[in-house]
């Protein structure tokens, strides 16, 4: 009866533990990315509710906001951001995508991780050309500035909020 491990048995045990740890870390990373994508979709849904309330209180008109504040600022145009018009909560990070982490973040540059569809700016939703022709489920109102969301093995995606209020992720 022997009581000591041989070197080969020890190496095999370490290799098995390493493989198991690698699999667990990969699953954890995927779950973390998925949670960020879902949190982002929730932020967009909240922005959609705020837009719905805004249009309801303004005779169906969307806010008159720019889609890319830094472009307007650089070219001398007025800078009215969607996050300035829609007051959701002072302490809320609803305009910050949790996956917007590359420095400098879009949130820091633009005040939001989400871009407003400039075509909707100041438009009445019931008479907007694209809504009439394609339907509110096909027209995007707000979306990620960049492809923040990695859903392996697919490439990075963006989350989109549509006029009808649903959110979808698209490559």
For the sheet with most strands, the description reads:
5 strands, antiparallel
What's the total number of strands? 5
Assembly category:
single chain
What percent of the residues sit in helical stretches (DSSP H or I)?
Answer: 40-55%
Our count of helices gives 5
3D architecture notes:
With 171 residues, this protein is an alpha+beta fold. It contains five helices and five strands; from the N terminus they run ααααβαββββ. It has helices at residues 7-57, 69-74, 82-85, 106-110, 129-134, and strands spanning 114-116, 140-144, 149-150, 156-162, 167-170. Strands 1, 2, 3, 4 and 5 form a five-stranded antiparallel β-sheet that branches. The longest helix has 51 residues, at 7-57. The chain is elongated and about 85 Å long. The chain starts with 6 loop residues before the first helix and ends with a strand. The mean pLDDT is 82.
Notable features of this structure?
171 residues; 42% helix; 5-stranded antiparallel beta sheet; alpha+beta
How do you describe this structure in short?
This protein has helices at residues 7-57, 69-74, 82-85, 106-110, 129-134, and strands at 114-116, 140-144, 149-150, 156-162, 167-170. It is an alpha+beta fold. Strands 1, 2, 3, 4 and 5 form a 5-stranded antiparallel β-sheet that branches.
Q: Topology, please?
A:
Blueprint: H1 7-57, H2 69-74, H3 82-85, H4 106-110, E1 114-116, H5 129-134, E2 140-144, E3 149-150, E4 156-162, E5 167-170
Antiparallel strand pairs: 1-2, 2-4, 3-4, 4-5
